[in-house]
Design goal:
The protein is an alpha+beta fold and about 350 residues long. It contains 6 helices and 23 strands.
Length: about 350
């Protein structure tokens, strides 16, 4: 660059202007050039954290660490480099955010999350987490990386979970596994985790007779954002299991409440996430309890849908409940009107026997 500027003093005016433009473009290309950041993610003992996620803060771009903990990420073309940051995360560790200055190598040691350790030291009742499935609907064909951060131990996964899933997703929800090229309609996992008494204490829910389960699901699952093929998958899996019980208590964890079970790291980040987790338990007799409030999310842009559930053998209630007293008019009763119209301390008609 110095040589070019030095020689420009000896070049005629027109060529000197052209040279100035070339030099300016060269300088701008350096300013806006895409940067590559590399490094390694380890724990406090130096062990590589395979599958750790590295995401550009306030953005949708990211990557995952390989089996040796190494990662490589391309930073977008922005001049405000010193305003960018990387977010490092791994299950059981504290999320760490590091501001980028002029370094091209960032090695990170992730510390143990003490809250997770306390849960492991004082476990609650172990429960089977059955069939969480994840559907992906991008607006156009998109390569998607997805990691499940489960607060328990993963068991069976399909397609096989190798520190995460990498698929090519189509707008219609078809997923092609990049490992073997097979097509799938959703990503599947299950496992076991422990619940504390506090996590299985309920102030609202539904008590549903075995003969009313299908009608109940058909009414409420669409309200939670599931479309017909998604809630039909839910119904055919759960109804045969729950019909073994005369009565079931049901409570749903939706949205952020699902995070007690698991969270997901998805690259690129979805615009909409609809997550429904059902907890149910056999109850000997019906009883009145305030109906759970249900909100309906809207689907916008790249959408992720997830549902799963667990049979909770031990449940608790934070409010007193009373025995269900049939009036003899249940067959003519407008269930939806009573539940949705419940205001203040009044109790809705619950259980539902449609």
């Amino acid at each position: 660059m110095y040589l070019l500027l030095h020689l420009s003093g000896k070049i005629p005016g027109m060529y000197r202007s052209l040279l100035f433009i070339v030099c300016s473009l060269f300088s701008l290309s350096q300013l806006f050039a895409q940067r590559t950041i590399v490094g390694k993610v380890t724990d406090c003992e130096g062990a590589p954290l395979t599958g750790a996620t590295i995401i550009i803060k306030d953005g949708k771009l990211g990557t995952v660490a390989d089996e040796n903990g190494f990662y490589r990420i391309e930073m977008p073309k922005k001049p405000e480099v010193n305003k960018q940051a990387l977010v490092f995360d791994y299950p059981g560790t504290e999320t760490t955010t590091i501001k980028i200055t002029d370094q091209d190598t960032i090695n990170v040691i992730l510390k143990e999350d003490t809250a997770t350790r306390r849960m492991e030291e004082y476990p609650g009742r172990g429960r089977r987490i059955d069939k969480p499935v994840i559907y992906l609907y991008p607006e156009k064909q998109t390569e998607v990386s997805l990691q499940v951060h489960f607060n328990g131990k993963l068991d069976f996964t399909y397609p096989p979970y190798k520190s995460g899933w990498k698929v090519v997703a189509q707008p219609d929800g078809t997923l092609t596994d990049k490992n073997d090229g097979r097509e799938h309609k959703y990503l599947f996992w299950d496992g076991e985790m422990s619940f504390t008494q506090e996590q299985t204490t309920y102030a609202s829910g539904f008590v549903v007779h075995k003969d009313s389960l299908v009608a109940f699901f058909q009414k409420y699952l669409p309200k939670m954002g599931l479309e017909s093929h998604e809630y039909n998958d839910f119904i055919v899996f759960w109804t045969p299991l729950m019909q073994k019980n005369e009565w079931n208590f049901i409570h749903f964890r939706t949205g952020a409440a699902y995070d007690i079970i698991a969270t997901n790291t998805v690259i690129p980040k979805p615009d909409t996430e609809i997550r429904v987790f059902m907890e149910f338990a056999k109850v000997a007799k019906p009883f009145d309890i305030p109906a759970q409030e249900i909100t309906t999310p809207s689907r916008k842009g790249f959408t992720l849908v997830e549902w799963g559930g667990a049979n909770m053998e031990a449940i608790y209630f934070s409010i007193p409940y009373t025995k269900f007293k049939p009036s003899g008019k249940e067959g003519m009763f407008n269930v939806e009107g009573r539940i949705d119209g419940c205001i203040g301390p009044a109790k809705p008609f619950n259980p539902e026997k449609i």
